[in-house]
Amino acid sequence: MMPTVLAYTSPAMGHLFPLMPLLLELRARGHRVHVRTLASQVGMVRAQGLEAEPIDPRIEAITLDDYAANGPVQALSAFAETVSERGAFDAPDLLSAARSVRPDATIVDINSWGALCAAEALGGAWTSFSPFSPSLRSHAVPPFGPGLAPMAGPLGKARDALVRRLTIGAVEKAFMPRLTLLRAAQGLGPVRDTDAFFRRSPLLLVMTAEPFEYPRPDWGENVRLIGALPWEPPAPTPRWVEDPGDPFVLVTTSSEYQADESLARAAVEGLGGEPYRVVVTMPAAAADLGPLPPNVRVERFIPHGPILERAAVAVTHGGMGATQKALAAGVPCVVVPFGRDQLEVAARVVHSGAGVRIAKGKLSPERLREAVHRAVGLADGARRVAAGYRAAGGALAGADAVEALVGATSPDGQKLHSSGPEAASEGSHRP
After folding, report:
1. Would you call 260 exposed, middle or buried from its count of C-beta atoms within 10 A (0-12, 13-18, 19+)?
2. Measured on CA atoms in the order 81, 87, 88, 89, is the torsion positive or negative?
3. pLDDT tens across 96-112, in order?
4. Considering only Cβ atoms within 10 Å of each terminal Cβ, which end of the chain, N or C, has fewer?
5. Which domains, from first to last, does the chain contain?
6. Mean per-residue pLDDT for 173-189?
C-alpha cells in the first residue's frame, strides 16, 4: 500500500505554492498525497495529480486585516488574533481530514495554529512547514517583526532582549491565553511562549536558506532550512514575454490584500519611459492606475517565472514568495515592505547584498526609480543567494526529511494513525 501524506495549509496562496514542489516530489516517490487548502485552489492542485479538498470555509471567512495596523506590534497582534481565531476551526478540520485520509505523515502550515495542536495531539509522524523565516529565538538573530539587522556583542544582545520584550513579548501577553485554549481543546498543556509552541513539531521545514537567512547555529536539528521552493501553476507563456526588447522589471503586490496599491502607482509613474519593460501584477487589488506609459503593462496575475528569466530587477512588496522567487532566479530586488513578515524579508535582502529597501513611508516614484538603478548593480548578490538555495537541497531535501521522520516514527511500517483519528472526537485529544 502506498504511504499517505496529508498536507494542511492556511488560506494563503503564498503558503500553498511553496509547498507544492515538496508534495509533487513525495508523489513522484510513490506517496499518495492529499491536500486541504483554499477552495479556489483545489482544482489546480488536483490538476497536478494530487488529491485535494477545501478547508473549512469558516477559516477563509476570517480575513487578515493587519495592513491597517499602526506599527509592527499592532500588526503582530492583528496577525495573532486572526490565526488564533481561525484555529478554532482548523483544529477540527484537520482531525476530520485525518479520519478520512488516515495519513502516514501529516504536514501542517505554521500559520494553522489549531491544526498544529491537533497534529501534536494525534502524534505519529508530523511536521510543520514555514514558507517564511519563523520567529524562533536565537542568540544570533534579532527579534522577529521590526526588521532589524543583526548586531554582534553585548550591545546587540541588550538591544535584542529589549526589543523582544517590546514586540513579541508584548503581543504574547495578549494572545497566549487563546493559544492555551486551542491546546487545551486537544488535551494539551500550556506552553511558555510561541517559541516553545513552534518547537513542539518533531520537524520544522523552513523554505529559505543562507546567505539570505541569517546564520542560526542554535536553532537545533529539527529545524531544517531547505531553500526557496519557487513554484507557480503551469500556464502558457504570453507571446509578448518572449518578444525581443528591453529587460523586464517585475513589480509585485500581495496575493492577500494589504493596501499596497501605492507601490504599483509609484512603479507606473517612476519607471515609465525607463529602458525597461515594466510588468505590474496586482492579484488582490483592483486600483485604477490611470493611463499607462507605453513600456508598462498591468496584469491581475501572470506567471512570474518567464518574466524573471528576462528581468533585470524585481520590485516586490516584501512577500517572501515573490522575493525569494526573484532571488532564486538570480534577479536582485527592490523591496518596499508593507507589513506582516515583510520588514524581515526586506532586512534579509539588504543583509545578503541582493537588493535595496525603501520604507513604505518614503516611497515615491523618484526614489523607486533610483533604487531600481542601484539594484541592477547587485546581481552578484542575488546569484549568491540563488546558489545558497540550491545548496540547501529544496524539495529533495524536504522529502528526504519527511520520509526519515516516517521511518523513525514507524519502523515497522504500520499506519501511524491507524487508531488515532478514528477514535478521536472533536473535543479533547491526547497524544
Report:
1. buried
2. positive
3. 999 999 999 999 999 99
4. N
5. 4-227+393-423 (3.40.50.2000), 239-388 (3.40.50.2000)
6. 92
